[in-house]
Design a protein that fits this description.
Blueprint: H1 7-18, E1 26-29, E2 32-33, E3 40-41, E4 43-48, E5 65-70, H2 79-94, E6 107-113, H3 118-126, E7 130-135, E8 138-142, E9 148-153, H4 163-166, H5 174-186, H6 190-206, H7 208-214, H8 218-262, H9 264-295, H10 300-307, H11 311-318
Helix pairs in contact: 1-6, 5-8, 8-9, 8-11, 9-10, 10-11
Amino acid sequence: MEKKVQWHPGFCAAMELELWENRGELEYEREYNLSRKPLQADLLVIKKRQETTISNEIGLLFRTWNIMEYKSPQDSMNIDDFYKVNAYACLFKAQERQINICPAGDITITMIRQHYPQGMVQALEQDGFSLFERQKGIYEVQGNLLFQTQIIVCDKLETPGHIWLRSLTDRIGRQEFGTLVDNIIRLREPYEKECADAVLEVVANANRTNIEAWKEDVIMCEALARIMEPEIQQAKDKAQKAGWEIGREEGRQEGREEGRQEGREEGRQEGRQEGREEGRQEGIALAKQVIKLDAQGFAPSEIAEKTGVTEQQVRAILS
């Protein structure tokens, strides 16, 4: 059975990369609870300092609180989605105890989809709204709105300026994939690379067949190897650390048991040796699984539940 592509973590990472130049003035919430009773939506909420001007065109509309609704390439975007995200924005505004702490004028809505939502646009026009293309692929909705709203059409955005969002497709072209790879290679900051890895993982899962074929190209293969080398080394280092920790614990346990029979010191030594070897192998497999789940956006508590280890061990592997 083919693995389902988890688009939302890749989208959140892509937005952080798109707005990287203003990273110090922005706060990100990748999921948001809209009421005390669990009403959780896959919304990205970006909080901006009031005095900050975003350099990326997508952020020109931004005010203090910016609600982003993303639709994957397989999902539609229709008029009900427009009103639904407006309802989310209303709940967001009304959830604070202090009255009007989030003025409507300080809240914006951004709806993002790969292709132009023709049906939704026609329905918006029938409801008295209109669209103004402020930048290529960036459309402001005009009319009697509760909140300032824009629609981002990823495949109309310019390349390479918006390569991160443009790459979130299940039909990426070879040239565009090459541009994505080139941009990833040039990154230097660790967290920036982590975000790029999350985008690449989504793109790779959604375009597996084509990318496997492109790997036969020598230049592309070398570029991909350069991307993966730090990740592989990091996984090895973390796996070795995890294996050592697990091996030491198992060595202690076996050493205590054998020490009762043949002497504490001899048992401890044998237990350590055997525990390190077995623990290293188990630790490598565990660390790989933890790192993969972390890249997919799972919290440490969720990773601990899925892997059968403690949250403390998960955090030790990810530290």
